[in-house]
Amino acid sequence: MDKRAYTIKQGFDLAADYCSREERYQKQVEEKLLAWGLNYEQAQLVIAELITSDFLSEERYAKIFAVSKLRQSKWGKIKIRSSLKEKYVSDSCIRIAFEEIDEKEYFDICYSLCSHKLEELKDEKSPAKEQKLYRYMFSKGFEFELVKQIISSIQV
User: Fold this and answer.
1) CA distance 10 to 4
2) Are 47 and 56 in contact (CB under 8 A)?
3) How many CA within 13 A on the CB side of residue 144?
4) Other CB atoms within 10 Å distance of the CB of residue 5
5) Does pTM surpass 0.85?
6) Which of 5, 21, 111, 112 is most buried, judged by most C-beta within 10 A?
7) At residue 122, does pLDDT exceed 50?
């Protein structure tokens, strides 16, 4: 099939197929529509119709993204928020997505990462070990207070 849209209807059909294969975010679909040959105004009309038809939902995308990044990639909220912001997802959708994250599960993942990293650093001297542990946990996107609480409970 030729991936070129000459009308809004063709653009909608291509985009609906594109969105039905996996969750997409609005900017991603917009860029695809523009690449398929629609102008900006036509792309916005198609996006509005996709949202109305429930093919496209920024909130649904944010929820799935947040939970899967926590569970599969072991990302913290800071990194998840940053990544969603890069995708132009609204703050309200990000807040709703964070409501999907179970706080106990979040704590347990952070604790597990800290413990595992400490095991890797067992031969390090104490100040360097703690610095490396903090740096690692911040690179995963976890909040300072949570990391500090866990590190103090583990006794580095």
Assistant:
1) 8
2) yes
3) 1
4) 23
5) yes
6) 5
7) yes
Which tokens belong to 63? Answer: 């929820």
Report the alpha-carbon distance of residue 156 to residue 153 in Å, rounded.
9
What is the C-alpha radius of gyration for the chain, rounded to an integer number of angstroms?
21
Element (H, E) at 141: none
Q: Could you tell me which residues come within 8 angstroms of residue 151 by beta carbon, excluding any fewer than 6 positions away?
A: 114, 130, 133, 134
Tell me the pLDDT tens digit for each residue of 92-112. 999 999 999 999 999 999 999
Between the alpha carbon of residue 14 and those of residues 26, 35, 70, 127, the distances in Å are 15, 12, 31, 56
Q: Fill in the DSSP letter of residue 15.
A: H
Q: Is the dihedral of CA 99, 103, 108, 113 positive or negative?
A: positive
- Under a CB-based contact definition with an 8 Å cutoff, are residues 146 and 107 in contact? yes
For 46, the enclosing helix (H) or strand (E) is helix 40-52
CA dihedral 21, 61, 111, 118 (to 10 degrees): 60
